[in-house]
Hints:
Blueprint: H1 2-22, H2 29-48, H3 56-59, H4 61-71, H5 77-86, H6 92-101, H7 114-123
Helix pairs in contact: 1-4, 2-4, 5-7, 6-7
Amino acid sequence: IQQVFRQLFYMINAMTLNNLLLRKDVCSWSTGMQLRFNISQLEEWLRGKNLQQSGAAETLEPLIQAAQLLQLKKKTSEDAEAICTLCTSLTTQQIVKILNLYTPVNEFEERVTVAFIRNIQKQLQERNDSPQLLIDFKHIFPVLFPFNPSAITMDSIHLPASLNLDFLNKV
C-alpha cells in the first residue's frame, strides 16, 4: 500500500509541476497559496492513514518548493539568495521558467525583472542539474516484495500424485 501511494503522489507531483511549468496563467502568488494548501491536505491525509513512512510526502517536495517560489518576494539579491537556498529539489531551468512565467494577479504585485532572473541564474550556475525541464510522469518506482520465510520445511511437504510431478526427487 505504501508503494502504491508513493507512486500515486509522484504522479500528482509530476503532472501538477509540469502544468505549472507550461501554463503562464497558473504561475501566480494565489496559485502558490492554493497549491500549498492542497499539499498540506494531502500530507495530513497521509498522517491520518499512517502512511508518512511511505516516501509519498517526499515525492511532493519539488511541488512544495515551486509553491513556495511563487509566494516568495522576488526583488532583492537577498530574495534571490533565499530562493537559491530553498529550491534544492527544482532544477535551475525549472526555477527560471517559473520566474519567467510568473504573472501578477493584482496591482500590488510586480513582474519578475530580467535582472533578478539573471541574478538567480548566476547564483545557480555551479549546480549540476539535469537539463530536462519537465518531470517524467511515467517514471515507475521499483516494487519491493518483502521476504517472509516459511516455518514449513521442504522435507515435510507431501506432493500429491495427481500433480504428476514424478520427476521431482526428495534429497
